[in-house]
Write a structure and sequence with these properties.
mainly alpha; 14 helices; 0% strand; rod-shaped
């Protein structure tokens, strides 16, 4: 519609001059036609109107000019009123009939009387067509015609195309062709995706939009979404299994120490897991020198002599015996 409105450019100077010349010719034709038919129509009307017979041709000619002027103005304002146009035709036909009647059946006279009214009507129709076309272009309501070659080559599809142009107010023939091509492309996609029974398998709203040729942008978007290939699912790696938590190793029940003799006491070792640092070092020294004194042990451990003697006594103490 915007392209059509842009096409309604103002007339050039040459076009205005040509239109003015045509207007002068039309005025001359109207004047000559009115003058030529005035006497003939007056003579025909004289038996009924007498001395007032001149009113009939004057009224008819002025009525034709008034009706034509108003009809052209309404066409220019994009408000056509067909009744005015047909009434002007009726008055012109009446004028032609009255002029032909004045010829009294002479073919030559009938043609001469009918020539100027026919030229007048033809000129009026040409002007009306130009005004209507230009006003329609400016308003975006003029529908372009379908070429005759397309009607001859593809009459059925052309009729459907023309029908959609009329029903949905498509005024541009190139736009209608583009819409038809997009519609057929969508139909081919649906046929390829759903098969020949795509009308019963595709969504009902999409079928309706494509069948009637309406809302094509939305219909094509839906068809593209429906027929687009779905992405293949990506296989995810199996989740890593976490190893089961290990149960803490159960400690073996403490073994009952066998009864030891006093002589075997120096060789006994205290459990290193429960011994203090001094005890562990003292056990190492006792293993190497079983007969070491408490003072010497204290000196090596860097503790007091009293502490060394106590540590030596505790380590050399025999383990208690359990009665069975």
């Amino acid at each position: 519609m915007d392209e059509q409105r842009a096409a309604a450019v103002p007339l050039t100077r040459a076009q205005r001059v040509l239109a003015g010349v045509g207007g002068l010719f039309f005025a001359g034709l109207a004047g000559l036609g009115g003058y030529g038919s005035f006497a003939s129509v007056r003579d025909v009307a004289e038996p009924w109107f007498g001395g007032q017979a001149w009113i009939v041709p004057a009224g008819v000619d002025l009525g034709i000019l008034a009706l034509v002027s108003v009809a052209l103005l309404l066409e220019w304002l994009a408000m056509p009123m067909p009744a005015l146009r047909w009434m002007a035709f009726a008055f012109t036909a009446a004028t032609v009939w009255l002029n032909v009647s004045a010829a009294h059946g002479d073919p030559t006279g009938m043609v001469m009387h009918a020539a100027m009214p026919v030229l007048f009507i033809t000129f009026i129709e040409a002007v009306r067509h130009a005004i209507r076309r230009r006003a329609g272009i400016a308003a975006g309501t003029v529908r372009e015609g379908v070429p005759l070659a397309r009607w001859l080559l593809a009459p059925f599809s052309t009729f459907r195309l023309w029908r959609r142009m009329v029903l949905w107010q498509i005024t541009s023939y190139p736009h209608a062709l583009t819409a038809e091509q997009r519609r057929r492309h969508a139909l081919a996609l649906l046929d390829d995706h759903y098969g020949r029974r795509w009308r019963s398998r595709a969504p009902a709203d999409v079928v309706w939009m494509l069948t009637d040729g309406v809302m094509l942008d939305q219909a094509l978007a839906r068809v593209t979404e429906l027929t687009a290939p779905k992405p293949e699912p990506v296989e995810e790696p199996p989740p890593a299994t976490t190893p089961a938590p290990r149960k803490p190793a159960q400690k073996a029940p403490p073994q009952k120490a066998p009864s030891e003799t006093p002589q075997e006491a120096p060789a006994r070792k205290a459990p290193r897991g429960v011994a203090t640092d001094n005890e562990a070092r003292a056990l190492t020294i006792l293993d190497a020198e079983p007969g070491i004194t408490g003072a010497e042990l204290a000196r090596r451990l860097d503790i007091s002599s009293r502490q060394g003697q106590r540590l030596l006594s505790r380590l050399n103490r025999p383990a208690p015996t359990h009665s069975s």
